[in-house]
Amino acid sequence: MIEKRLNRREDDRQIFAGLDIGTSKIGVVIGELDQYERLQILGVGISPSKGMRQGVVINLDQAVISIRQAVQEAQLTAGIEVNNVVVGIAGDHIRSVNSRGVVAVSSGDHEIVENDVERVIDAAKAIALPIDREVLHVIPQEYLVDNQGGIKNPVGISGVRLEAEVHIVTGAVTSAQNIVRCVNKAGLNVNALVLEPLASSFAVLDENEKELGIGLIDIGGGTTDIAIFSGNAIRNTTVIGLGGQNVTNDVALGLRTPVEQAEQIKIKFGRSFSDDKHQQEIFMVPGLGGRQPREVTRDLLTKIIQPRMEEIFSLAAKEIKRSEFGDRLGAGIVLTGGAAMLDGATELAEQIFEMPVKLGVPQGFFGLTECAATPMLATGVGLVFYATELINTTENNIGPEEDTLFTKIRDLMKGWTRDLFGS
Asked: How many C-alpha atoms does 229 have within 13 Å on its Cβ side?
């Protein structure tokens, strides 16, 4: 039963938790739906990420410790213990493709029923995959009935031929399995794996933006995730293997200071776009190996940061232009993720993308708004929103058997996603 999967208190209030396992930080967000179906954020936990690189587990034990720390902080803030989480997945192992399926309507009176929809989705997702890859999401974009397109839900419509256009997201089997094992070893059950830019879209985009066309760029620590929406459907997803950690490493090398200090300097003094107002300001940089601190101008720091941010945005712009929907972004670009908070990022992005750019801040909830309303937690908040949308879509659970665990998660998510996107 679904009650076994959801985190609930004794008074049966619905509790949800999102877990964002990033390269530089682990973010946990705990929320609940009130009696009016509004989301209240109860707890937030953030810990430095260890054992992860570009969305992939490289040290399981360190990753488990980091997850536990973030979960404990969130639970302490919320005053409640959680056992189940919806987990974000990203990394440069993620691949996506658009596909189309066609079937004949089966009923004698030519009325389309749920079984027809299931068959056309199965036909659309029948693509050849390497043995080391599995399908994460099959997201319907639109249906066509007798060549009439733009249909979101064809059930009940009469026709002879049913087509489905879908967006298929795949990931490396071992990468997904290792994430699940980390979460399990941290004492939590995985309710679902969700592509991170898809989760972030629930927190920072509205329906009008998705309908008009918008590009979501989520700049994390190790990767930059791109999702393109048009016609209120996700059209393209891409992952770039660069993120905020690369900027930090550049600062560490350029200023000859430890990475930990470079991160703090980047946050406090960093700017990704040069201006004349603050560039002659001076700050102190700690020295390495007992060397004396030295003075550095913000202009020098900007000259270190700006080329890397330009590279990230240029690669993102190239990926967007490569997709067939790159010229349909009527609502422009939304930047989110921790590195998007860097001063001047939106101005630099506007120059490179040559369209309006805004900073995506999670919204649509109440409670710990000061803690959760930050681009750094867009994925975590989005995962909670995602879970609330899926509360009544399935009664399946994920068992502990590791050999079939990823297949169960895959099948569960395909069913959830179909329900969520109107098939």
From this structure: 24
- Please state, for a pLDDT cut of 90, what percent of the chain lies above it: 72
The answer to whether the beta carbons of residues 320 and 197 sit under 8 Å apart is: no
For residue 7, the model assigns a pLDDT of: 52
Q: How far apart are CA 26 and CA 52, in angstroms?
A: 10
Nearest-angstrom CA–CA distance, 395 and 40: 24
73, 74, 128, 70: which is closest to 99 by C-alpha? 128
pTM flag (> 0.90): no
Please, what are the domains in the chain? 2-92+173-199+362-420 (3.30.420.40), 95-169 (3.30.1490.110)
Determine the length of the chain.
423
- pLDDT of 421 higher than 60: no
Neighbours of 395 (CB within 10 A): 10
The count of C-alpha atoms lying within 13 angstroms of the C-alpha of 398, restricted to the half-sphere facing its C-beta, is 27
SS3 377: helix
Among 227, 221, 165, residue whose Cα is nearest residue 195? 227
| Residue type at position 206 | D
Backbone phi and psi for residue 5, each to the nearest 5 degrees, phi listed first: -90, -30
| Residues linked to residue 151 through DSSP beta bridges, in sequence order | 143
* Cβ contacts of 104 within 8 Å, gap of 6 or more: 160, 161, 162
In DSSP terms, 144 is beta-bridged to: 163
pLDDT tens sequence across 37-56 = 899 999 999 999 999 988 89
Both tokens of residue 176?
Answer: 């997904």
For residues 402 and 360, the answer to whether their CB atoms sit within 8 Å is no
Q: Which residue has the tokens 């490289």?
A: 58
Element (H, E) at 99: strand 95-104
Residue 115 has what pLDDT? 94
- Which has the closest alpha carbon to 113: 158, 58, 167? 158
Weakest-pLDDT range from 18-22, 77-81, 127-131, 225-229: 127-131
Of 135-139, 215-219, 231-235, 408-412, the range with the lowest mean pLDDT is 408-412
CA dihedral 362, 366, 371, 374 (to 10 degrees): 10
Q: Is residue 216 packed enough to be buried (19+ CB in 10 Å), middle (13-18) or exposed (0-12)?
A: buried
Residue 113 has which token pair? 């029923």
Taking the C-alpha atoms of residue 37 and residue 54, their distance in angstroms, rounded to an integer, is 35
